[in-house]
Amino acid sequence: MEIRPFTESDADAVFEIHRRAFDGRLDEARIVQRLHDADTAVVSLVAVADGHVVGHVLFSPVAVDDHGASVELVGLAPVGVLPEHQNEGVGSSLIRRGIATCREAGVDAVVVLGDPEYYSRFGFEPASEYGLENEYGVDEEFMVDPLHDGALDAVSGTVRYRPEFRQGET
Length: 170
Fold this sequence. Notes:
- The protein is α+β, with helices and mostly antiparallel strands.
- It has one domain (2-165): 3-Layer(aba) Sandwich (Aminopeptidase).
- 24% of the residues lie in helices and 31% in strands.
- The chain is built from 4 helices and 9 strands.
- Strands 1, 2, 3, 4, 5, 6, 7, 8 and 9 form a 9-stranded mixed beta sheet that branches.
- Strand 4 (73-81), helix 3 and strand 5 (109-113) form a beta-alpha-beta unit.
- Helix 1 (11-21) runs antiparallel to helix 2 (27-37).
């Protein structure tokens, strides 16, 4: 399996990956499409197996209300893998490579909203331990991975995702 940066020619395959990975729901696929259209993805990677795109992960900027310091945070969302390639390590590989790419790009921390048991293996910890909340009002499922020592020392407040995550909500 090869992991490489997303290109425009991957757009249709990536839309289909997220549609199928989320049981036919279009929300995640549309979020990815809007983030790419707005050119706001900090890191967007695809996994390719046997010449076909089988997985995708995206990291986009997030903002912290009243954080009082200049810090670059990104949100990991979404990650999707075609159902027939799930449980093969594709998603884990995408997440690990994505986090490493964020670190190399100078990102200070990554936040994620998801299963604590799953994401803790990548270094994510409860965001509330760092004084971070989120606009969705969840606690246990909201986690952060500081990418270097002291990354979040001067940061606290509510993390807000890009408007592309809210477009089309009813």
